[in-house]
Amino acid sequence: MNDMSSEAKGIGGSAAQLKAYNYNHFLMKHLIGDLWRTARAAGIRPGSQAPDFDLESTDGGRVRLSDKRGEIVLLHLGSAT
Amino acid sequence: MKFLEIFVRQAHPGETRGAYRNYGEKLEGAQEYKRLESLPWPVVVDDYQGTVHRAYSREMADPSFLIDADGNVAFYNMWTHVPTLKSGIDELLAQEGRARTVLKGIDRRPHLLASFVDGYRGPRRGGRRGVLEYDLGGLGAGSLSFLGNKAKPLLGGLALRAVARGEKPSE
Fold first, then answer.
1. What does the angle CA B89 – CA B1 – CA A40 come to, to the nearest 5 degrees?
2. What is the pLDDT of residues A25-34, one digit of tens each?
């Protein structure tokens, strides 16, 4: 699987970018952004290798996507609110 | 097959649950979310920059992905829709988990009915401001989700079905 680090290049680490990503007010531009991305099919290309990740789990462990090879995985990206 | 939830930023922050100020707050939010939603599958936390969120979906609010047994993105459901995902899973299983793509690889339809009928508790968790801003920024979506939630007994059968219309649920 691809390493996420190359995908992550240019992804915002500046204070302004972090604040924009972790917004505290939902605005119309966020809805329009989703519709715009939908129209352009923005995001990962179907059929391509899933970028790998190694993330902390709520139970204190870690989960690496590439460890799931050999199985079908359903990923859902969810928000508390 | 495995289910995995990747926890991302607040979609509808408000006075009760605001934007996360750091990764630690986000991790605590994920732990609470797993408990409140009674999720039986693992919940992992994206980093504070949203690296996975951006790489996979460029920040879409509610996307899902089916990854096949070889690690390919077999299906990208831009607006998560359970019956569509079920069809994709069935198609993948029929090909022993190795399909590269199923259902032509992507579903871009904005599936709003389920979100209005079952999605009110999200912004409500943010607080009154979360709902109000969802309404103002979402062209009435806050009100529609409030009403949809009230109409859940009526609309639930259609909006929250697990399989596509006309298809029988599997045992």
1. 45
2. 999 999 999 9
Cβ contacts of A30 on chain B, cutoff 8 Å = 61, 137
Cβ distance B68 to A72 less than 8 Å, yes or no, reads: yes
- Both tokens of residue B20? 């996360």
Cβ-nearest to B56 among A49, A68, A77: A77
The alpha carbon of A15 is separated from its chain's Cα centroid by a whole number of angstroms, namely 19
Asked if A35 lies within 8 A of B110 by C-beta distance, the reply is: yes
User: Contacts of residue B43 in chain A, CB cutoff 8 Å?
Assistant: 57-58, 78
Q: Tell me how far apart the alpha carbons of residues B19 and B10 are, in angstroms, rounded to a whole number.
A: 6
DSSP state of B128: H
- Each residue of B35-63: pLDDT tens digit? 999 999 999 999 999 999 999 999 999 99
Q: Cβ of A70 and B43 within 8 Å?
A: no
pLDDT band at A2 (very low <50, low <70, confident <90, very high): low
Cβ distance of B17 and A33 shorter than 8 Å: no
pLDDT band at A58 (very low <50, low <70, confident <90, very high): very high
Q: Which residues of B123-136 are buried (b: 16+ CB within 10 A; e: fewer)?
A: bbbbbebbbbbbbe
Distance of alpha carbon B103 from alpha carbon A72, whole angstroms: 15
- Here the tokens at position B89 are 């899973």
Q: Which of A23, A50, A63 sits opposite B19 (nearest CB)?
A: A23
Question: pTM score, two decimals?
Answer: 0.92
